[in-house]
Amino acid sequence: MAQADPALNMLNRALNGDHSALSFLDRTSSIYLLDATDPCKPKTYGGWNFIHQAMNEIERNEAGCMKAGKNASLTGHVQLLATMAQRVARRSPATDRGLVATCIANAAQYHASESEAQSLISLNSEIREIVMGRIAAMAFDVSFHSQRNMYKSAFSDPVAMEKLCSVLAVNAVASGPMTINHFMKEWIIPSLSSLPPFAVACVTYHLAIEALSKTSPAGTKDTLQSLSHAVVGCVLAPVLVDSVGENSESSNYEWNCRLVSISLRALERWCAATDLSLPQIKHICAKRQINFIALISDALYSDSAYVVEAMAELLEVCIKENGEEKVSKERMTQARYIMEVGEDAFRSITPEDLFRIEVKEMEDVLAELVTGVGLQRFRFSERQAKGDHGVCRNLTRIAAKVGNATVAKLISGKIPTGASGLLELLMKAGAHPHVHISSIAIIVLSQLLSIGSNFTPRLLPLLQHRAIIPYVLNGSVPSLAASSSSGVDFYEFENFRQNVLVEALQRCYEQNSKYYMDSCTSAVEEFCSSSATVEVSFQLEAALFCLSAVALSVNSPLKKNCQKGDIHARQLSRCTTALSTKPVFLPANPLALAQLNRFLGMYGSWYTMVASPQALDVAFELSVSTINMSGTAFSDQEPASEMLKEMAVTPFSEAAKATRILLTRSPLHFTSQHKITLLGSAWETSYIASNRGMLKIEDREDICKGICSVVASLPVSKQEISYHAFAIPIVECLNTMTKQADTARQYEIAKLASVMPRLADELRLLSTMVKSFSVALDKVNTKSEVNKSIPISCEIQPSIGLLAKLWPCLSHIASNYSLDKHISESLGFFLVNCVPLRLENSYAIGLLRELFMLASSMILDSANNKSPLPAVYDFVERIIDLHGSKIEIASQVMVEGTATLTSNAYCEVCKKLENLILSSILSIKNSLGSAWSCDKEQGQGQPAFESKSKVILDERPTATDTLAAIFTVLSIAAVNCPIFLIHLPATIGGDRENNRLISRAIKSSVIVLVEPDFELARTAILFLVSVIELMASTESSSLRTTIENIVSSARATIVTILIAGICGGLHATLLDPAATLLYKILRTSPSQEVRTFYEVALQQEHFKLGDAARVVLAEYFSRCCTGELSDTSLMTFAEDIWDLHQYDEGRSLASSDRVAAFIEKLSSI
User: Which pTM was predicted?
Assistant: First the structure.
């Protein structure tokens, strides 16, 4: 490559990843430069100049190499150049002229006259025309498409050739509908016989792709619709006729497959762009004596995966399922063009008429396709035998689409011809070992279960077989083999079972519940026999999976005194009896063990409410024995440990969950001394298992919840003793881990990080025990007539005693280790779970005081580490959630003197709550943004997103998690105790009237609406929504006036930010809450004032939809103000507006088809 080839050298550097070269190509594609070194001969330089120069250099290099008998190897350079040309061609000629004019106008050293400027603009337009002419000449050069000359030039490379064709299509669409019409009618169609079919198909394909873009000019779709008859009938169908059926032994076979594939893809994209339907394609082809259905049926016999994939995509777009589509205005237009009648004559046809016609014609087409696709069952087996999974998958896609569209007809028997072939193909596909193939078929097969009474017995064995997790046996040692046999890894296979198989199994059950349960029950009995081997454990796992998949449906009749329930009860009793044998292979297969315990949990309601006590005992012993295994089973030396590492949920987790379900639903059954002893053993084992990493904290919590339910059901005299006995391991572990932490902090600081997670887990377990016992005891007291006379203090006395014993340790942990993330989260969990449900005795009030002190100690060092504060706010949130109504009354007593309280406890809670909130904010106010630390106004009074960058940096919070927690607490307070919220001062002891906390919170929330942390922005939006809702719903005029005065100053900024966000500035997940907030502001604000706000917002540069859309949208907002339109409507249009603004800004959006359709949609409401 010569140094005299600067453009080619730049492409070469870019291909090698040179950043400066890539940057140069990017700038050259985007802007124009003016070279006025010689004022007498000024010239502009941009994308078209570079492309023109590069094409010259490539041709010169290739010519030189050809003379020398060498290969220039410039294929990559041409492909990159064509990609660059695509980008440049997407600018319309008018936009290009505007860029050149801007370039000339911005020149500092050269001042061109109007005629000189126009001359430069015209010269650039000429270069564009020259380049497009050269590209067209290459794309349609027959010699470049000849097999004999293929790949001699980089321009003849098929990938490069397709890109060059796409440049022609992109340029035509960017130039407008008239250019498209001229390009196709005056160039392509009249010259078809002399043009290369591949180039014609590529140009058609990319025309449709470009027409589907958001920025395609208005009128593009209508133009393509007017061309559908000619494009399909004269271009694509004849190309397919000439190419389909080429002998696979032919030297042209590979090229023909490429041609068929691109032609089918062109047809598919054209249908997507024009709303062209399959019956309409058939109608067009019939006029040209082409049987289109026969044609595509022949194409299905191709051995090329690309051809069959293109066919699958075509049918997926063109076949509309029942109820999937209504006759739109665009479809009516396409039908008129196909019928070749004028608008006046077409008015006699209504959308309903067209719908009936299309439904009938589609039924005829589908009937033919059912037969044609059914014949592919033989090829499916052939290709599967050859390992051609690509063809198999796409044949399955086609069969599934046809089957989906004809479900009703197939079930009713109205399409008998070929139906058996289609079903056989789907059954073969459903049995295919690769999940990506079988899942497609199974989804359709499950919808066809009503096709005949014998179909469920035919399909269920297939589903049961597919439920078996792929495995291999090395001797007697099992291991997973999902990826090698099913085409996916174990995680993906589990997703397939949970999402596809479960739904199909549930449909089978609904169709024939007795047969389903009998089949699964017999399988469980067979696989639990004494002669069963380890290999059988995978079949047992699958059988139990099938039973668990329908548990919700089975449990419903089990609870009723009906025949179906009795049948299922007998079937589950048989399963339980079989499982009670505890097959010897279970310890060797953690998958089967996990599924067994999952089965017990899924049918927990039957075991605890309907089954015999013996069956419940079996379930209990199975789950507890699994927990006891966790102390020793599946060590690293055991082969099964590798299988355990692959599992997302271990058997011990499932066992803990099953144990919790059984114990919490029937706690009285487990109050015997023998069962208490078994529970004590399992509880002790859980500590050993935790040390081994076999039980997570969530699993230990499940066991704890179950045990607490049993302890709460004991006689009152035994509750406290048993409660403290079960708490001994927690107490000992907490003390031990605290001592280890203290030692590590003093002597081995590196070990402290390993101690903290375990200490945090024990804190969390303690809080779970306190809460679970309280909830369980409350449940027992509610149900038991005997216990209703028990004083309410007994509800928490055992917990109070335990906490009193541990309080020095807890205070020590909070004071010394709350800055650790794990500890702070667990302390927050502890604070939340220990909040008393009622404050009706000294025990509860004393406990809450201690919790406030614990929370306060977590705040002391939070200035340098914000980790504890979200936990503190969780505690505050829990108090407001539980006691908000009483806090509200106490606030009225303290602030307004308009209410009375029987107890002063809630007044004390108000004071402590206020102090905790304000002291926590004070501790990190400089990290929350200037809205919390000072009262200065936004720079020059602008909205937050328009302020100078320095102001934004000053006001941006760094403690985002804490600020989000503050907004959440204030939102809940606005609902549960608004008077408390409104009268919170901004500082401790501050002015409640003139320096309110809510004022700072609103100012802060407005600032963070534009934060990149969208979770913070979400909490800010929800806080503002709660404030606006409070203002609209409160009956207190003084409260309403106070909020109005606070909100009014921020309203204009909020509206502007929200509209800017809906125009693409917000994260997609924030659109619904943002639309809700905007709607509430529109509804609650003075109409004339808010109209000014949204009209100003729509005039700013973030709104890209143009003047016509601006007028219509302003009218839409005015109707929202009056309540004529709902917030749901605004949410829908917010998504539409946001989606429209996600586009390449190199092209105009305002004049596009999509915006025109949006305006029409908005105007029609």
Answer: 0.86
